[in-house]
Amino acid sequence: MAGTVGPLALAAGAVAVTLLALPAVPGRPWQGPLAVVVALAVAVALLGHVVRRLGGITGDVLGATVEVVTTLVYLGLVLSA
Length: 81
Hints:
By secondary structure, the protein is mainly alpha-helical. It has a domain at 29-81. The protein is 72% helix and 0% strand. The protein is globular.
């Protein structure tokens, strides 16, 4: 399954999630999108590191990346600036 999502679909999904995060924190419309963007940047860095170290992506890597990104978004939404 890795590599089956094209760049256009990936970009569209990232933009959609970022926009959906706008109302996530009342009174701070920037906090939700910022949490999403930071988590996506960490995901890209993590996947880049894993590809260099392991030579590819496994299902375990994808699962771990989902868990890391989800945790970072949750933390970004609950932490006050």
